[in-house]
Amino acid sequence: MTDTTTGARPPYAGTRYPRLAQIPAFREFIAQGWDDVPTRPDLPQGSAQAAAAHRARLSAAMPDATLVLSSGIAPVRNDDSSYGFRADSSFVWATGCQTEEATLVMWARPGGHDAVLYMPAPFRPGDDGFYSDALHGELWVGPSAGLAEWADELQVTVEPLEALPARAADLRGALAARSAGALAAAHDLEVSADLERTLSRLRMVKDDWEIGQLRLAIDATVSGFAAVVAEIPRAISDGLGERWLQGTFDRHARTHGNGPGYSTIVGSGAHAPILHWVRCDGPIHPDQALLLDMGVEARSLYTADVTRTVPAQGSFSAAQREVHDLVEKAHRAGLAQIRPGTAYLDFHFASMQVVAQGLHDWGLLPVSVDEALSPQGQQHRRYLACGIGHHLGLDVHDCSQAHYEDYMGADLEPGVVMTVEPGLYFHAHDLTLPPELRGIGVRLEDDILVTPSGSDVLSDALPIDAAGIEEWTRRQWASR
Fold first, then answer.
1. Residue 9 above 70 pLDDT?
2. Which stretches of 231-305 are DSSP H helices?
3. Quick one: DSSP state of residue 123?
4. pLDDT in tens, 272-297
5. pLDDT, tens digit, 9 for 90 and up, residues 11-45
């Protein structure tokens, strides 16, 4: 209310809630009359056991140093609103925990490490933060698991976050991950490239639990593709466009997982060749190809990454099909190289050989195939500037902090999960192309597990050949 004599607002008005703590009557009343709501962490089954095994591997790899990883904090979106929080991937790998502002310290000791997880305790009735802290106050975020419940669930020592500064002297010489950069700056720690490299190297080989989580994410993604493709006729007839299809998948991902693993790409016609077309603000052109690059992130934060290019009217045109057939041929060549003991980049070179030969056969290269494929050439990359694949896991481009020799210079081994994703991107304004090819973008992307005897295409429930995609697309429409 407003003071009628002065027109001034009283100090407890508005949204500056800490001022309410200055009013004894309010503090006394809001602290009373709340029922206890027992709450435990809601984690995917097996998270704690997997994280313990991951910490053991990290401890064995870096036995002599105290190691620090943090979950992070959501960046500000605008004014006092933040983006949705998503915990740091290496922190989740080592803890199974997704709580904001939490820090894992693996204290070095003879023969290994003692792991302690420091996290903010929730503010409950009787705490001023219950109503004044929008990040951890239960009046804002709802009943939350306490430290004891987290310790019991994760089977690790959990202490309040405010206990960590008291041990600052013990942190001297500790190695911090990038996620713990703020803590490193406060306590003069080293943000360690060696720790990041080690984490990336360890995360490259997935254990059985991680592979199970990726299968869940990929299966949910396959059903998400079906949901999106079923909406194509409506998106065209009602003028809803790319954004309707993007929203359809994002809703599916939020329903069947944590959400999208990355920004969903829906590109119709001339938007399809744009590698990261996440604006999705155009119409669906019924006579043009539609590129869909989408992945569900599971509740454990492991993500899928799958791409298909579908005909918006149910059948590819002759030019679209010719492009798709060449991409399919390159895709199959890449898939054939995924097996233990082969060099990581073999799949890349196999796909590029097919692409360069096809472009040469179409008369699009100004040089021979050999010249194009040479380090001094690469003219074919005008139409395929990105790579042919990457590691996959907690991050869509997983293990990116690994050194070249660990990532691209290594041989494949069982437990590696990766993508193969050749494409051709013929931009509508590219005058080196004949008119019938301009504005066609095609990508095929599958998620593949390296097995002891070869490989397993985890996303093979979706067809990759043009005829199969046409039939599958029409089948989704018939099932609406």
1. no
2. 232-237, 241-256
3. B
4. 999 999 999 999 999 999 999 999 99
5. 555 545 557 788 899 999 999 999 999 999 999 99
Any idea what DSSP says for residue 122? P
**Phi and psi at residue 204, in whole multiples of 5°?**
-65, -35
Question: What are the residue ranges spanned by the domains of the chain?
Answer: 47-203, 208-479
Report which of 222, 421, 218, 208 is spatially closest to residue 334, judged by C-alpha positions: 421
Long-range Cβ pairs for the range 73-78 (8 Å, 24+): 73/100, 73/101, 74/100
The answer to whether 291 touches 302, Cβ cutoff 8 Å, is: no
pLDDT of 13? 54
CA distance 136 to 133: 6
Closest CA to 387 of 411, 352, 418, 336: 352
What superfamily does domain 208-479 belong to in CATH? Creatinase/methionine aminopeptidase superfamily (3.90.230.10)
Architecture of domain 47-203: 3-Layer(aba) Sandwich (3.40)
CA distance 361 to 120: 62
pTM, full prediction: 0.95
Q: How many residues does the chain have?
A: 480
Q: Please check whether residue 291 is in contact with residue 442, taking contact to mean a CB–CB distance below 8 angstroms.
A: yes
Sheet containing 103-109, strands listed edge to edge, beginning at the edge strand earlier in sequence? 157-160, 112-119, 103-109, 67-70, 175-176, 190-191
Per-residue confidence (pLDDT) for residue 20, from 0 to 100: 79
Residues 6+ apart with CB under 8 A from 261: 217, 253, 295, 296, 297, 303, 304, 305, 396
